[in-house]
Amino acid sequence: MHAYRTHTCGALRASDIGSTTRLSGWVHRVRDHGGLLFIDLRDHYGLTQVVADPDSAAYLSAQSLRSEWVIRVDGAVRVRPAGTENSELPTGAVEVFATGIEVLSRAEDLPLPVFGDIEYPEDIRLRYRFLDLRRQKLHQNIMTRGAVIDSLRRRMKEGGFFEFQTPILTASSPEGARDFLVPSRIHPGKFYALPQAPQQFKQLIMMSGFDRYFQIAACFRDEDARADRSPGEFYQLDIEMSFVTQEDVFNAVEPVLRGVFDEFSKGRRVTKVFPRIRYADSIRKYGSDKPDLRNPIEMMAVTDAFAGSGFKVFAGMIANDPKVEIWAIPAKGGGSRTFCDRMNSWAQTEGQPGLGYIFWREEGGKIEAAGPVAKNIGEERTAMIAERLGLGVGDAVFFVAGRPEKFYKFAGLARTKVGTDLNLVDTDQYALCWIIDFPMYEWNEDEKKIDFSHNPFSMPNMDHDAFMKLEAGDQDTILGLTAFQYDVVCNGVELSSGAIRNHKPEIMKKAFEIAGYSEDVLLAKFGGMYRAFHYGAPPHGGIAPGVDRIVMLLCDEPNIREVVLFPMNQKGEDLLMGAPSEATPKQLRELHIRLNLPQA
């Protein structure tokens, strides 16, 4: 017989009744039923009920057991007594009558419970992550993560992609976040950087004549934590393809993502054909470039309904600034003064003066528009708004006013608030979409200059000859220019950014020149890739869906730390391993580093 087990704790079935078995695992819990001891024995594969009675040779050993002790059990498999079966367990038809128990390892008093999913302070959970991971839900999340990665890898290979590994120690590059730097011992004063993404390497792979690349890539960014972003490191399905258009990338990636979400959706609907939404339209309809399409609310501009109206606040704004717009946020089923006042109060907690609103009710057999806004603009204008938005009795609409670039984020929050509070959001689905035609450039108000708004390596969506002729005076044209850049969004979460790359050195040089970077900067920061473009570069493009975020959505978790094995806390600290830690004087000397710490 094997030293530790003949079966796992999830393997025994009714067909094993009458046989002997040896199991090893953790004591999940012990129940004393009037001298009859029941031990739930747990391992990675499942849970088996072990029984010891006073007549059993194992009874004395069983009496001493405590939670999370590791034990070995020898015994006979028998049927559970009628009425005690557990249909929720695969092993629920049988139990093991213990003939021998050996304690393999004792556990001290636990700093957090393993049995159940009790909420516990995050610092305790992270410091004792090895215990936290024993809990059923978190344990299953990590197994789901592995299965999702297997599925992604299999689907990519079926699509003709080949897996490559790119360097972890590389050069620093300005890609939108701070680098993690690694000092070089043999090159004093110089540093490697951990890659924010394999961006340049995967493009260089295309320069090298390979055609379809992917990898499950570790990426490192020195940025603050968020619920959907781990501090320090994260993983992405990194993809690049040669001789492709934007449509080719969509056709290759969409079946992979749709297939993975179908496989792990647990019955939720998954978008069959991802809609393509222009960035500008997404901002205007949803107040975000990461729209949650489970929420059916679409905003609409109703500026003309207020121009010259009796609602002087809005009318005055429109008259004084041609860039002012009034956006309407329809609220089906929100037609009560109580709900409207609650939304107005919420807006004030968001730092806004309030939310104008109209709601429709029936009074004396007649449909009536109510609220201060309705009284000031009159029946004709309120009827026009109701018709455009498809609103009627029992509905409401809220208004946001100003320059859209200044209020669109708040409008998006209001849309989300209305949809959530009125239970309009269909949570039984994964709603995926493409956001396309991102702006190539944006105005940097702090530095008073044009800057890249997204990915500097993207191909501008403009005739190349016309692009090469752009000058500083063409600011409106430049700021209105879009690029072949795209995002995949699911349920309001950005899964990925991607682009068709700028593979022509003269176009790249011009693109950086517009953003204020000379060719010297281009050579210093991106020299390897820039030089490669001079030796025959294929048209190419790619994308990099975030693995952590995909798993977070599929596990229905609000925080990414619930799907990562050993995450850091919000401060970027690994409480389990004690990182970051101080370097010893010897280590610093070898690296030729002297510390200049801030004064306390």
Radius of gyration: 31 Å
Give the number of DSSP strands. Answer: 24
Mean pLDDT: 94
Strand content: 15-25%
- SS-derived structural category: alpha+beta
Spatially, the strands of the biggest sheet line up as 6-9-10-24-23-22-19-12
* Number of helical stretches of at least 4 residues: 18
Helix coverage percent:
25-40%
The main sheet comes to: 8 strands, mixed
Low-confidence stretches: none
| Gross morphology | globular
Through-space gap between termini = 63 Å
Task: Report on this structure.
- The protein is α+β, with helices and mostly antiparallel strands and 600 residues long.
- 31% of the residues lie in helices and 25% in strands.
- The chain has 18 helices and 24 strands.
- It has an 8-stranded mixed β-sheet, sandwiched between helices. A 5-stranded mixed β-barrel has the order 1-2-3-5-4. The chain has a 5-stranded antiparallel β-sheet with strand order 13-14-17-15-16.
- A hairpin with a 7-residue loop joins β7 and β8.
- The longest helix is centred in the first third of the chain and has 23 residues, at 136-158.
- The model has no long low-confidence stretch (mean pLDDT 94).
